User: Fold this.
Amino acid sequence: MINYIKESYNELKNHVTWTDWSEAQRLTVVVAVFSVLLALAVWGVDTVFSKVISQYFTWIKS
Assistant:
């Protein structure tokens, strides 16, 4: 286990190419914006389906 941790640390330190700080910030903003947009889309679809199903059961009940 200790050998695995040492090798993992060595891999991260010497062989991984890290992005620039500005690029990481830009990509974080892009991910955050798309996450919010996706959440709003899911909320919208859920709201519409909820109202449609509610109307359906109201119609069936009558």
